[in-house]
Structure formats: structure tokens, C-alpha cells
Amino acid sequence: MNLKILNNLPIRYKFVMACTVLFTPLAIMVGFFSDSLMRDTLEVQIRRELKNSTDSILNMIQLSAQLSIKNSLRNIAEKNTDIVRMYYQQYLDGVVTEKEAKARATKVILSQKIATSGYIYCLNSKGGVEVHPVDEMVGQNLTGISFVDDQVLRKSGYQEYAWKNPADLVARPKAVWMNHFEPWDWIISVSAYKDEFAHVVNIDDFRESIGSLEFMKSGYSYVLDLNGTLIAHPTYQGMNVYAQGVETPEGLFATMLTQDSGEVFYQWQNPTEMSPRKKIVVFNRIHEMGWVVASSAYIDDLYRPLDTIRSIGLLVSLFILCGGILIAMQISTTITKPVGLLIKHLDRGATGDYSARMNYQGSDEIGQLSTFFNQFMERLGAEILERENLEKQLIEAEDKESLRAGQDLHDDLAPHLIGVEIMCKNLTNRLKADSSPAATQAEAIGTFIADASKKTRALARGLCPLHRVDEGLGFALRELIDAVMTFYPVQCQIYVTDCTPIVRAVAVHIYRITQEAVYNAAKHANPNMITVTLLQDDDALVVKIADDGIGLPESESSDGMGMKTMAFRARMIKADLEIDSLPNSGTTVRLHLLNKYLKKGEA
Length: 603
Description:
This protein is an alpha+beta fold. The chain is 53% helix and 18% strand.
């Protein structure tokens, strides 16, 4: 295998390839063991699910039974209260005596039977028995018995307690609903034993909920009573498991009906199937109801999800593989990130920003490279700073020389020309007085001397702009425009807004940049119009020089001395300089300087 092709790959991809080779076998092994482990635990999990479902149904039935018995007892108590109230009203209406009304009400109350052996009785607020199906109990005071004391205290509502009738061997759980009829001080109590609740519980209240439970593809839950009748079943509801025509495995229901809870494996065939299949059932008994709740599922359905589990195993393997790749990428990031940062800093240095430094805390190869880079940038920055200082000195020397030349022109040559111009005028006047033909030539000479004087003053103002700048940058730029039109056959216009005072050094640099741009356009671009715009807003000062000429020629490209001088002056005052030029479309020079630098100059 030719590994040289790897040399062209990024470092990150090399890490990814290495980790892929490493993690792929590991992912395969994890997938194999996860499949085996899931297969071993699947049956345990489904058993737990069946048991939880059975327990949920059991709790639901018990709660439903509790609510059903409460509602049933309460309804009976309210009806009997209405009956007692009716007889009491007959007494109030004078139809019967109070004794007769109580006797009739008692007869109706004692004629009723609740569930199998439940009944209705009445106590008074002192614990005395007013009505009871056992004659011997009537008139007795049951104060001291806890549930009686509680009834006397509460007088209405639901209550559970244990009670033993004379014929019973042990006390049994009992429930009672009480309503207090105040006119006769009767606590009307409707009672029934909890083990008879099946007679008052409506199986329809939860049959639909039981039938909606499914496990895997064909598992379900059902309920049967201790006689073997299926009171809730998706197929055989209402049938008895011992009845003829119902095919049942031997020993299945015998186990379920004789044990409190457990699980049974058996063979079962549904009517729509061709052959029996192995099945598991988990069951539990509700003693108060005399019911058995069961949840069942087919064994082959237990293992059907293995395909899904294998898919999950494959996903896990892929996850491990992807995780390894991500780890590799993360590790590679610790290398590629500082390298990328180093490349970015090198790019900044290539564009002229020599302040870039690597802040890498480490002593590895990247750390050593960062140290060397920082040392290199420091030396390079120092060299560049020294060079810029030299350029600055050259610019300052050039400005001083221009200032001296301007002063010489203004103070020496300009007065001299003015004197010559005056002498020429005097000579012209004398020649005209003598009617000499040389008068015309002398007058022409005077005109040339006057133009030379005017141009000398314009040159002096251009070479020595300080006193003009002190009058305001806008004032100096207007004189600059006038001087250009003096020397070149071009129209110029200027637009100036009010500007804040600008420090002289900054103003001079702006003037020199504008001067260079305007003279370049006038000399080389052959324009019809040059426009200078000076604007200032809340953020910055903008100077724009635009012409409609032929564009920048090769001699004035970005490598030209004039362009370099403009760029250097812009850097000195922290300004941005942009030059846009297209052939036969003119040139636009734009200088952008933040207001905060207008009074700081090079600060």
C-alpha cells in the first residue's frame, strides 16, 4: 500500500482513519455481546412487564370495587333517608302518628338485603341501636365499640371496620355508609361485608380497560372468578373454563384457581391459529372479590423483538464507531486548532498586522512553534516599526522641504516677480507714451509675468499649507481646488460640511492625501470634472475625491511612490484609504477617519 497519498490529507482526517481502524473491531464485539445479553434478559423483562400489568389491573379492580361499593352503599343510604323523610312528613302532615311513621320506616329498612348478608341499621347520636334486623340488638347501647364511637362522632360518610356476627367464626371486613336524619336522630347505616363486594361491583366499569391491554403482538389480560367463569376475556368472555367446548390445557386453571399468585407455562391455540404455541401467564388473586387477574403472552413473541434488538446493537456499534471518530476529531482539534490559529496569525502578519501573538499554554511542539512565532513577530514588528519611523522621518523631511520651498517662493520669488511686473507696467506705459511699437510686446511680457506671479503664489500655498489649514480644512481644500484649476485645464468642484476642529498634524496629512489624489487625476486621468467632498457625521470624517477620467494608468498603480505616500499618511492618522478605478470609468479615492482620531493624530 502506497502511504504517500496520506501526506496530502489534513491531520484531522488522518486521526479519523486511525480511529476507524481501531474502533471498528471493538464496535463489532460490543454488538455481538449486546445481542447475547439482551437475549438472556428479554424473558426476565417480559415476565416483569406481565407481572406489573397484572398488578396494575388488580389495583384498578380493587379501586373500582372500592368506588363501586361506596357508590352502591351511598345510593342505598340516600334512598332510605328519603323514605324515612317521607314517613316523617306524613307524621308532620297528621296522616300518621310519629310512632306509626317510625314503625313503617323501620319495616321498609329491615325488608332490604345488601349483597348476600348485608343489612341496614340505625343508631342514635348516643350510640343506642334504634333499628336492627336482630331484635335483641334494638335498644342496646353500643358506646365503647370503636366503629360505633366513630359513627356517633361522624354521623355521615364512609367507614370500614371488622365485625363478627353470632354465626361467624371470625370477624370479617365490613363497609358502611352513614346518613344522619336529624329529626329522629337516626344514623342510617347501610353495611355489607367486603368479601361480598363482587355483587355490587360492575365489571363493565373496567372490562374495556382490561381488553385494551396488549403485550407484544398477541398477549392480553383477563379475569376469571373462582368458579372458573371468564368475566373479562377478549375471546371467551362469559364462558366457564370447565364447560364443554372450551379447550383448556390440563392443570392451567386448576393452578390459577387454587394458588394466590404465580406463573404457568402452557400450550395454547387460538381459534384463528392452526397449531398451539407455548405461552406464559402471570396471575394474582383478589381475595375480596373472589377473582383471579392474569396477563399472558406467547413465548415466540418474546423473541420477536430480537430483530429490533439486533438493529439496536448495530446502532450501538455505529454509535461507538462514530464516538471513536468524534473522539479522534476532538483530539485532532487540540492540534489543528492551534495550528489553524497560527495560520490565521501568519495571515494577519502578511496583511500588515504584526501585533498577532500565540497564547498557547503548553510545552509540546505546538508550544515551541508558538514561542518561535512570537519571537519572529516581535522582531519583524520591530523591523517594521523602524522602517515606518524612517518613512515618517522622510515624510516629515519632505514636508519641511516643501514648507521651506513654499516659503522661499512666497517670501523671495513672489515679491521679485511682483517687482518685475510693476517695472514692466511702467515700461509699457512709457512705450505707449512714446507710441513705440514695442509697447504691445512689453504689455504681453507683463501679462506673462503676472501669470507667473499668480502661479508662484499658488505653488507657495500648495507647498506651504499650514497657514491655510489653520483657517480650516475646508478653506485649505477650496484653495487647493483653485490652484489645480490654475495649472490644469480641468473643472473642479467641492462640497464641504461644517467640521469639528482638527489637530494641525492630522489636517495636514488629510490635505496632502487630497492634494496627491487631485493632482494625480489632473495630470494622468484626463478628466472633465474632479469632485472633492468633505463630510462629517457623528462617527467619522470622510473625504472623497472622484473624477470622470480614464482611470489609473500603470504608472500610478498601487506600487507607485504617490500611492505609497498616500497609504502611509493614512496609516499615520489611523485612517482607512480605499481607491477604486476602472478603465474609462474614472477613479474614486475615499479616506475614512474616525472622529476620535481627529484630535489625537498618531495617538
